[in-house]
Design a protein that fits this description.
Number of strands: 9
Structural class: alpha+beta
Number of helices: 4
């Protein structure tokens, strides 16, 4: 795991887990990521459809440019399985003030191997090492049990709050960078 207490998340650093490299998003990843994200089933809970290479490239160009809102920071990574040198998914964080909203997706062929949880735990650990971040949030469809398991493994706890039909998951972060589950907040 990366020690992010000494490394700020902007510019976005490369992060590492036991099996994955979390690489800062680059426009040139769009073509290979189109294949990773090609299964329509990935959109069951989020809506939409798989993007064509040109559309994903345009989206990545917008993401790497950064948020047009000066109060928001976009951090995006491609998950690369080190042993096979292939991309398997993405994680992201949108940081606004003291809040980081996170999300993840792993391509269908690589699901069920713990990659999303591994990447989400690394991301939450990195966010917890940032001095200004107090809360980590994720929004998960109530029927998306696999994503709920990922959030739980990263230390987030489901709340009673809903937004656009999704359950808000929350983790409070202490100033020293140690993450605390929501139910254990001081």
């Amino acid at each position: 795991m990366t020690d992010c207490t000494a490394q700020p998340l902007w510019p976005v650093p490369t992060l590492r887990t036991d099996r994955l490299d979390l690489l800062p998003l680059r426009v040139e990843y769009a073509e290979e990521m189109t294949t990773v994200l090609a299964d329509p089933a990935l959109h069951t809970f989020t809506g939409g459809a798989p993007a064509r290479p040109d559309a994903l490239r345009t989206r990545y160009e917008r993401l790497v440019t950064g948020s047009p809102d000066p109060g928001a920071i976009w951090c995006n990574w491609v998950l690369r399985l080190r042993a096979q040198a292939c991309p398997v998914g993405t994680v992201q964080a949108t940081i606004t003030g003291e809040v980081a909203e996170i999300a993840w997706v792993v391509g269908t062929p690589w699901q069920g191997r713990g990659f999303a949880g591994e990447a989400a735990r690394e991301l939450v650990g990195a966010l917890g090492g940032q001095p200004g971040i107090r809360t980590v949030l994720a929004h998960i469809h109530p029927d998306h049990h696999a994503s709920a398991a990922v959030a739980s493994s990263a230390g987030l706890t489901a709340t009673e709050e809903e937004q656009d039909g999704e359950i808000r998951w929350r983790l409070s972060v202490r100033r020293r960078g140690r993450a605390l589950p929501a139910r254990a907040r001081p």
